[in-house]
UniProtKB/TrEMBL annotation:
Biological pathway: Protein modification; protein glycosylation
Domain Phosphatidic acid phosphatase type 2/haloperoxidase: 59-180
Alphabetized Gene3D superfamilies for the sequence: Phosphatidic acid phosphatase type 2/haloperoxidase
Protein name per the record: Dolichyldiphosphatase
Protein purpose: Required for efficient N-glycosylation. Necessary for maintaining optimal levels of dolichol-linked oligosaccharides. Hydrolyzes dolichyl pyrophosphate at a very high rate and dolichyl monophosphate at a much lower rate. Does not act on phosphatidate.
EC number: 3.6.1.43
Lineage: Eukaryota, Metazoa, Chordata, Craniata, Vertebrata
Pfam family, one: PAP2
Origin species: Platysternon megacephalum
Length: 238
C-alpha cells in the first residue's frame, strides 16, 4: 500500500489547454500581449452568444467561414511543416508547426470580413450619414489595430516568426474576401429558402439579408412596439 499522502500514477498527466499563452516573467508588455492574443477565443464566444440569441443566417455563415478558415490553416501547416521559432521557450504549444500563424490568419479573416460587411453589406436608412460613416471608420480602424496587435503578439511572445505571421495575415485576408463573395453571391439567395425550412422555423432561425441595417431596423421596430404597448397600457388604465 502507498503511504499516506502519496499516490502512484501509471503515467504522466497531460493538461487540456486551449488558452495557454506564456510570457516572460516580469514583462508587463508581454503580459498585455498574451491577453490580447486570446482575442480569437473571445470572438468565438461572442459568435456563439449571438447565434444563440439572434439566430441569424448571415452570422451563422460568418462563423462557418471562421471554422473553414481554421481548417485551411491546419491543412497548410501540415503540408509545409515549418517549425515554430524557439520551441524550447514554451513548455506547452497546441500545434507543432508554425507556418502560417493560426492566430494571424484568424484575426485577419475576422477583421477583413467585418470590414467588407460594414461597407458593402450595411447601409444606413436614416439621415445621419455623417455619423454613420464616422462610426464605420472608427470601428474599421479598431479592427485593423487589433489585428496588427494580435499578429505582433505572436512574434513578441516567440510563438511565430515574422514570415509566419505575414503569410497568416495574407491567407486570412484572401479567405475572408473569398468567403464574403461566396456568402453574398451563393448563400444569400438561398437564405430565404433555408429560413422557410421546418427545422429553421422550429429553431427560430431567420434571414435578415434584405434589411440594409439590422441594428437600425431592430432599434426602430422595438421603439415603435414599445410606444404602441405603452399607449395601449395607458388606455386600459384610464
Amino acid at each position: 500500500m502507498a503511504a499516506v499522502g502519496e499516490c502512484s500514477l501509471p503515467a504522466p498527466w497531460r493538461p487540456v489547454s486551449l488558452t495557454h499563452v506564456e510570457y516572460l516573467a516580469g514583462d508587463f508588455s508581454g503580459q498585455l500581449l498574451a491577453y490580447l492574443s486570446l482575442c480569437p477565443i473571445f470572438i468565438i464566444v461572442g459568435f456563439v452568444t449571438l447565434i444563440i440569441f439572434k439566430r441569424e443566417l448571415h452570422t451563422i455563415s460568418f462563423l462557418g467561414g471562421l471554422a473553414f478558415n481554421e481548417g485551411v490553416n491546419w491543412l497548410i501547416k501540415n503540408i509545409i511543416r515549418e517549425p515554430r521559432p524557439c520551441e524550447e521557450a514554451h513548455s506547452t504549444v497546441t500545434t507543432k508547426y508554425g507556418m502560417p500563424s493560426s492566430h494571424s490568419q484568424f484575426i485577419w479573416f475576422f477583421s477583413v470580413y467585418s470590414f467588407l460587411f460594414l461597407y458593402l453589406r450595411m447601409h444606413q436608412t436614416n439621415n445621419a450619414r455623417f455619423l454613420d460613416l464616422l462610426w464605420r471608420h472608427v470601428l474599421s480602424i479598431c479592427l485593423v489595430t487589433v489585428a496588427f496587435l494580435v499578429s505582433y503578439s505572436r512574434v513578441y511572445l516567440l510563438y511565430h516568426t515574422w514570415s509566419q505571421v505575414l503569410y497568416g495575415g495574407v491567407a486570412g485576408s484572401i479567405m475572408a474576401i473569398a468567403w464574403f463573395a461566396f456568402t453574398q453571391e451563393i448563400l444569400t439567395p438561398l437564405f430565404p429558402r433555408i429560413a422557410a425550412w421546418p427545422a429553421s422555423e422550429f429553431f427560430l432561425i431567420r434571414d435578415t439579408s434584405l434589411i440594409p441595417n439590422i441594428l437600425w431596423f431592430e432599434y426602430t421596430v422595438t421603439r415603435a412596439e414599445a410606444r404602441n404597448r405603452q399607449r395601449k397600457l395607458g388606455t386600459k388604465l384610464q
